[in-house]
Amino acid sequence: MTKVKFDILETTCVPLPLENIDTDQIIPARFLSATSREGFGDNLFRDWKYLKTGELNREFVLNDPEYSGKVLVSGKNFGSGSSREHAVWAIYDYGFRAVVSSFFADIFKNNSLNNGLLPIVVSDQFLQRLLDLVQKDYTTKVRIDLEKQTLTIVPTGDSVSFDINPYKKECLLNGLDDIDFLLNMKNLIEDYETHKSIAK
Amino acid sequence: MKAKTLFDKIWDGHVVRSIDRGPDVLYIDRHYIHEVTSPQAFNGLKARGIPVFRPGRTIATADHNIPTKNQHLPISNELSRTQVEKLDENCSTYGIQYFGINNPKNGIVHVIGPELGYTLPGMTIVCGDSHTSTHGAFGTIAFGIGTSEVEMVLASQCIIQPKPKKMRITLNGKLSKGVTSKDIIMYIISQISASGATGYFVEYSGEAIRALSMENRMTICNMSIEMGARGGLIAPDEVTFNYLRKLPSIPGVGDFETALAGWEKLKSDSDAVFDKELAFDAALISPMITYGTNPGMGMAVDGTIPLSEDADHDASASFLKSLNYMGFKPGMKLLGQPIDYVFIGSCTNGRIEDFRAFASIINGRKKADNVTALIVPGSKKVEVQMAEEGLTEIYREAGFEVRQPGCSSCLAMNDDKIAPGKYAVSTSNRNFEGRQGPGARTLLASPFTAAAAAITGKITDPREFINEDKNL
Known about the structure:
Oligomer: heterodimer
Number of domains of chain A: 1
CATH topology of chain A: Aconitase, domain 4
Order of helices and strands of chain A: EHHEHEHEHEEEHHH
Strand content of chain B: 15-25%
Shape of chain B: globular
CATH architecture of the largest domain in chain B: 2-Layer Sandwich
Strand order of the largest sheet of chain A: 4-3-2-1-5-6-7
CATH topology of the largest domain in chain B: Aconitase, domain 3
């Protein structure tokens, strides 16, 4: 099955300068009872979006009408905690296509790459520069070129390159699917089972 | 031949193919699934029109969203009921062994796997749950995965995975009285932070680890993910083999002695090199408690909340936001802080030894009036054993009600929620904002510390209740 290809992205950003944002904040457990992948965006950061009274929390950046865009910029150790892929589905469903941070939790990073959401790791210094600019001016745009593996702050021209596994890069650029890849190597898997496999 | 770590030996032995400059295709020996992270994976198989490649290698249970009361009745919450029904239906369609509610083998996935002999040394094990790291206690490579990866495993029994770096954490010396394996792992996380092991797979070793029972080792490996590690493992030894020997059956293993000969070889070479090595002294560890909203924010139960997360810098916005959520201030002591709930259970501390530890303190005492207690066994087997050993009666006499098995208040998908703003001393694994219910304030601790709080109604040093050398 083919997936959506990841194109060059030029967009404004949403700043969320907190560290250790865990997947329970991204999508609280009480919203995990669905059996499909759709519609999780409505509950993205649910308990930060609303006050205890049930009113909209005007202080929270997703409720700030000035901030929008396809890139979320956040503090280090983003996506820690639970393995719930629902966190990635919620971020993607909301409209984000990349998250920029100085550090991602491992499972979140894998889940992102498996769903066309690009996790971009930058240095603490670059992250701070980007956050400062975006917080000062909500119209600040970034340009993400996956082919070249670069992230550029458009108004300043400040550019960094980022790492991505070559296999995953190819999957994202061409909309390739891991399961097709695995199904195509069934003979190799069966061969492995014949020779090595332990207790069933 | 180049010296190898135990992690390398198991990983390399399971590589079906290495992708050029890319991740490895890793064969998975055991796949556990549950109702919350599997339905979308089965939908994927349906859309592709493909079967489960090796249904015999997948084991299913319902645990995350199920009620812990009246399990004989249909689940009243419609969404939860649908999720459990879907799992049941998918397991019948694809021929997967399913231990549903009311099955005597039902329970939390990371409690029943070892209990039923499905987790064995040397295996690769995955599950759509981050606490899959629990199974590493048997000398396995076990880690949590997302739903897309669950679909990969169902479709091909393989997963595409980059190989993590290796870390060894050595725990020398002996534990002091009243200090448990929960305190060990909470101490390590408090020292290296909630992201201190991200990118690594950890091997735990040393005298203090060797001295632990299997159940206590599981508690340590369970919380590896809370410092960001991909997983944690402990080389199998006589403690492991004795645990396995006592199991009623080990599915898939014909002759125990033959299997044992293979398991005995599972250890890191003496000259194997790790990417990172850390060592701690077990004697320095006190009963621990968390004061913030990530598991790295932990301290000795009689300690003082630090002024910032890093002695060299002012407190960050994240640190202050966290303390504000908890209703605490930098420099504050927590001893004597009144609490509202106590939760004992979860894949971290929901095994029989945990309930024995809790009972050893509450035996003959009464629960504090201001405390609501949730006592939730990790599995049906644990529930039965609690009754047989007389623990259920001890709990009842002290004023506690024992629930039926499930993940319960650890992630509060069911009705077992902590009320907004209330404090819960919890033996689970995460103190994130809202984890135990919107606005709930979680203080992670060991079964001893939870028991002491349940009796006094406030944060209490459990050593006050322990006279003899009582280690877990």
